TrEMBL record, chains A, B:
InterPro entries the UniProt entry points to: MmgE/PrpD_sf, MmgE/PrpD_sf_1, MmgE/PrpD_sf_2, MmgE_PrpD, MmgE_PrpD_C, MmgE_PrpD_N
A UniProt-annotated Pfam family: MmgE_PrpD_C
Entry's transmembrane regions: none
Boundaries of every MmgE/PrpD N-terminal domain copy: 5-243
Identification of the protein by name: MmgE/PrpD family protein
Domain called MmgE/PrpD C-terminal: residue spans: 265-424
Taxonomy of the source species: Bacteria, Bacillati, Bacillota, Bacilli, Bacillales
Family: Belongs to the PrpD family.
MF terms (GO), sorted A to Z: lyase activity
């Protein structure tokens, strides 16, 4: 049986009612987390430019743009996808290196709003979309990732799967939709050399292309039936080797959305374990920064390769400095988007403490990487007290799940909006299964 | 200097007034030829499905759809691009294996109509678009073509270049536009295994994506500045080896649009030389099919590998049968789209003559392939007369140029439309430099 047919059958057979409770809860957290990122990004240039072009192009008022107003489902998928990948706080699947939210959710939400689908149907669509793109991403990892932005390329299949589910496609139609999705898959990493906005174009376009693929199939437009494993298909063309088993293993039995990692701090993932432990200590006892004599952080070598920077000069560099992030967390008691600012970079208290942070490798922790992303921390106070902590995973990883922290993060990302509206967003998303129309999620806009 | 900058400078420096007269004439023939293909394809399913989806999505009335009505430039580029690649009679560049018309012209025409650009500006844009995609296609040939549908992937750059020219982008903006084009480039050959409609989706999407790339750049959206030659760019990711010199050699001095080949018969290109010679003989003297004792066609081996089929069973197969095409031309005195029909396939006169066609290899002709696509033909009549002809190129190749034949082809492809409207299309296109608004080209719709 072709991989496309196996995927199509899994989609056809998925029912909200049969999803495990933890899968449903997880999907709602993914949607809340996505919404926070989208709301935090929508005023920034990449989203605003795409919104302006979408306005130029016009479109039927089928779905809500995160930037305001309604337009076609294409435009909603495009703009909302791009907006949600700007602040770089969206979720990630480590095994496939895919940010599924930024592609799958805007596609699914736009189609759900258009077709007046329920919250439950949106949840099922998101579960499906995450699952398909994670599986395809794992199949082509690691070689695909060198040239291709997995989030966009593999994400296109996820968006098509979610949209196809919501459009009620048949098995044969879903196979065609996957063909049309794969043949539109694009997104080269070359933009990273310039730090260009293609980073945001990719998920937006992938969401839009996925929706188009499903629409095409619904109307009888055909595509390759073996787009993944075919001789001139996605695997052969875009990876050095591909493991088809990664697509099919447990397909329809386990949903990979629960393997998702959330990012609750605004810094590089390799700094999160230290920030987590500092914040935990501060919850356990009140430690004033000036009473800290030293902080020793031991972790794996890769973390240091990327984040050992005792003198970050820009806000961006500060997010990649383990020393800065650790000190910032101790002083500000938080490491959210707003905490990483120019004023924090010049804050004498943060800078003074940063100089008292020492980083190094712990051989045992290093040996356990990358299965575990661990760290050990020891804080020495002026009175001689030593406080030590150790962790194997940053918070937000599936092994260290979070809920309250995600709601906190959402509130921080939407701090510029009326508090009542923010609480309604939280309420609606966390009770999404009760919404008769999923499109109401964005009704605060 | 980066390739993108070299291309951007060539675009900036191109002026209609400085184009050689033969380049201008050639561009107008390309546009006429494209228009015929688009009008012949618009009623078929792939175009109609895309038009229906475009209508669903809605869009501002900026540009004319070949299927009727107006919509956004995106929708016009998408629908018109797909429509023009259905009857498979659009032009081709042999060195890059690209059908530029089906991507570059719908993108350029939609933007020209939107921005009320003149016929002259459209001509310059088309010349630029053809040139850029041919050059990039040659640079990645032949390895790119194995997996990737060059027309779509390289065509995206051509569409962006043409659209960027018409939008008046600066050098820096054009570089960004090329970055956004390349990172959207997509289109896998896998669909060919199913004979799927991705064949038409690809050029339509490439045209639309190229327009989007130019729009993005105009509003300050950034892309990779070395999208072609960069470490994780188009060349490295999508070809085994690439020759950057093919992009720059003679750039801005010679325009590759004049290397274009036109297809004046509706069959496989490898049958055209024989059809040409039969039609030429029939112009020179009246030969009734029943008086033909035998026809011997000698050509290169590759032609026979693909077209030696003495018993074609379908209309599609008939277009790939050298024996059938030769006999059809002798009986019908034409080998246009309408001539290849089910009734022709059952026509006793065609079938009888087909059995008297012999095909074989001529060693000299074979040795000259692929630089020359030659054939020799000998017709033996019942009265003992032998008529022989030989050619190095099928008509429509740059070495064997055509004009009247293209106008004839246009009339045949639009035979279902009012004759006066058809003549106005021809008149306007062949005098495009006199049109104050290029969008008027489609005003007969």
């Amino acid at each position: 049986m072709s991989l496309s047919r196996e995927i199509a059958r899994m989609i056809i057979n998925t029912r909200y009612e049969q999803l495990p409770a933890e899968v449903v809860s997880f999907a709602k957290l993914c949607i809340l987390d996505w919404l926070g990122s989208a709301l935090a990004g929508e005023k920034q240039q990449p989203a605003q430019i795409l919104a302006a072009i979408a306005e130029d192009m016009g479109g039927s008022g089928q779905a809500t743009l995160i930037t305001g107003g309604t337009s076609s489902v294409w435009n909603a998928a495009l703009v909302n996808g791009a907006a949600s990948h700007i602040v770089e706080l969206d979720d990630i699947h480590k095994a496939s290196i895919i940010h599924a939210a930024t592609v799958v959710i805007p596609a699914a939400l736009a189609v759900a709003e258009w077709k007046r689908k329920s919250g439950r149907e949106l949840i099922a669509a998101v579960v499906i979309g995450y699952d398909i793109c994670y599986r395809i991403g794992e199949a082509v990892s690691p070689s695909h990732y060198y040239y291709w932005h997995n989030t966009a390329t593999c994400g296109t299949f996820g968006a098509a799967a979610a949209a196809g589910y919501l459009l009620g496609l048949t098995e044969e139609e879903l196979i065609q939709a996957l063909g049309s999705a794969g043949t539109q898959a694009a997104g080269l990493w070359e933009f990273i050399e310039d730090g260009a906005m293609s980073k945001q174009l990719h998920p937006g376009k992938a969401a839009m292309n996925g929706v188009l693929a499903a629409q095409l199939a619904q109307r009888g437009f055909t595509g390759a039936t073996r787009i993944l494993e075919g001789r001139r298909g996605f695997f052969q063309a875009m990876s050095e080797s591909a493991d088809a088993m990664k697509v099919t293993e447990g397909l329809g039995q386990t949903y990979k959305i629960t393997e998702n990692s959330f990012k609750i701090h605004a810094s590089c993932r390799h700094t999160h374990h230290a920030v987590d432990m500092i914040l935990e200590m501060l919850q356990e006892r009140d430690i004033r920064p000036e009473t800290i004599e030293s902080i020793a952080v031991k972790t794996y070598q890769v973390a240091l390769n990327i984040t050992d920077n005792p003198h970050p000069q820009t806000v961006y560099a500060a997010k990649f400095s383990l020393q800065f992030c650790t000190a910032l967390a101790a002083v500000k008691r938080s490491a959210g988007l707003a905490d990483f600012s120019k004023s924090a970079l010049a804050d004498p208290e943060v800078l003074a403490l940063m100089r008292r942070v020492e980083v190094g490798v712990d051989p045992q922790i290093d040996a356990a990487y990358p299965e575990k992303w661990g760290a050990a921390i020891e804080v020495k106070l002026a009175d001689g007290t030593r406080i030590a902590k150790q962790t194997d995973y940053p918070k937000g990883d599936p092994e260290s799940p979070v809920t309250d922290e995600l709601v906190d993060k959402f509130r921080k990302l939407t701090a510029d909006r009326p508090a009542e509206a923010v609480e309604r967003y939280v309420e609606r998303t966390l009770h999404l299964e009760e919404l008769a129309e999923a499109g109401l999620l964005l009704s605060e806009l």
